[in-house]
């Protein structure tokens, strides 16, 4: 005879019986675990309705069975601290606005929670009340665009998109190769049909999308580390990297040094309390905006063309 303290133990045992074609029913399972038939029925319903298990009743065998042998129950072991970290991570992920990903997190954590021991007492609603995550404004993404892009990536299929940028809307067929979140916004790296280079597309700018039956034939190899290396903010891809050096006034030197603007940045303390930051990166527009955000407290030392562009921008503002 077995006495269970948690439903999780019973669910694991029930899964094994179903997987081994033992055809358990409410009566037999209740007797084995010394529980009521109503509790046994609730366990079966929980496995089917809450965990999505393909459970059906066989009248001839007088018991339940799996209609899909490939179904697997999640097997998770974690302590209270790990659960708290996971829940906080889910709260942070919710800030990626416009993706269906955050909506599914709650269901995932509910499934994980049934495998935790009874002494785990973290209440998500209480934990979330002590922490806040406020992210920069993100471009919203339609659920259909997200779903089709992920499906195309998984199955290596072409997609047809209507893409909107500064010049208007254009229809194109592309082969998706990689999805990346850069500073809170989602970007798709894809190869246009009959082209060999990889382009960076903002998911939020895809106005409509259609999954094609044609398989994606990628020319060359896409290396995420290489493509995203030297990325400053959100600009990556084929853009050419350049070396930039900026000096900051002593009044803001401390706050500038507190952040890592680029993985390969070099920081040099200047006489008088100022600081110099240099790195090699892509994205002239993003870097220009970064420098201008500090106004008179930032001075471009190189490259000269960036210094000239900022000077021209200031004159235009005046």
Question: Can you describe what's shown?
Answer:
This protein is an alpha+beta fold and 318 residues long. The protein has 4 domains: 60 residues, Arc Repressor Mutant, subunit A (Orthogonal Bundle); 49 residues, no CATH class; 79 residues, SH3 type barrels (Roll), CATH 2.30.30; 76 residues. It has 11 helices and 11 strands. The strands form 3 sheets. Strands 6-5-4-3-7 form a 5-stranded antiparallel sheet, with helices on one face. Strands 9-10-8-11 form a 4-stranded antiparallel sheet. Helix 4 runs antiparallel to helix 5. It is elongated. The model has no long low-confidence stretch (mean pLDDT 82).
List keywords for this structure.
single chain, 318 residues, alpha+beta, Arc Repressor Mutant, subunit A, SH3 type barrels, five-stranded antiparallel beta sheet, four-stranded antiparallel beta sheet, 11 strands
Instruction: Work out the radius of gyration.
Output: 27 Å
The residue-averaged pLDDT reads 82
N-to-C SSE series? HHHEEHHHHEEEEEHEHEEHEH
Judged by helices, strands and strand pairing, the structural class is alpha+beta
Q: Which sheet architecture does the biggest sheet show?
A: 5 strands, antiparallel
* CATH architecture identity of the largest domain: Roll
CATH top level class name of the largest domain: Mainly Beta
Cα distance spanning the termini: 85 Å
Spatial strand order of the main sheet: 6-5-4-3-7
The low-confidence parts are: none
- Total number of helical segments? 11
Q: Please give the number of β-strands.
A: 11
What count of structural domains? 4
Strand content bin: 15-25%
As for the CATH topology of the largest domain, it is SH3 type barrels
Helical amount among residues, as a percent range? 25-40%
- Global geometry: elongated
* Quaternary structure annotation: single chain
């Amino acid at each position: 005879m077995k006495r269970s303290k948690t439903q999780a133990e019973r669910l694991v045992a029930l899964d094994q019986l179903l997987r081994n074609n033992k055809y358990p029913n409410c009566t037999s399972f209740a007797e084995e675990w010394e529980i009521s038939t109503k509790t046994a029925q609730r366990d079966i319903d929980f496995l089917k309705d809450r965990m999505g298990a393909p459970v059906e009743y066989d009248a001839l065998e007088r018991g339940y069975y799996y209609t899909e042998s490939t179904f697997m129950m999640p097997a998770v072991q974690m302590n209270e601290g790990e659960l708290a970290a996971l829940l906080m991570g889910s709260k942070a992920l919710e800030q990626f606005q416009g993706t269906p990903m955050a909506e599914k997190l709650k269901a995932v954590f509910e499934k994980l929670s049934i495998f935790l021991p009874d002494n785990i007492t973290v209440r998500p609603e209480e934990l979330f009340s002590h922490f806040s995550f406020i992210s920069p404004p993100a471009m919203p993404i339609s659920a259909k665009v997200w779903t089709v892009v992920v499906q195309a990536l998984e199955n290596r299929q072409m997609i047809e998109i209507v893409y909107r940028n500064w010049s208007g809307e254009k229809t194109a067929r592309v082969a998706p190769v990689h999805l990346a979140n850069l500073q809170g916004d989602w970007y798709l790296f894809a190869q246009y049909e009959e082209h060999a280079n990889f382009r960076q597309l903002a998911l939020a700018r895809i106005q409509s999308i259609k999954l094609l039956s044609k398989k994606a034939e990628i020319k060359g190899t896409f290396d995420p580390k290489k493509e995203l290396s030297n990325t400053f903010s959100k600009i990556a891809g084929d853009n050419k990297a350049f070396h930039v050096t900026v000096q900051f006034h002593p009044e803001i030197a401390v706050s500038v040094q507190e952040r890592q603007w680029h993985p390969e940045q070099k920081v040099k303390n200047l006489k008088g309390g100022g600081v110099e930051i240099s790195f090699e990166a892509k994205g002239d527009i993003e870097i220009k905006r970064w420098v201008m955000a500090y106004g008179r407290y930032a001075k471009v030392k190189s490259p000269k063309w960036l210094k000239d562009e900022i000077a021209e921008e200031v004159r235009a503002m005046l």
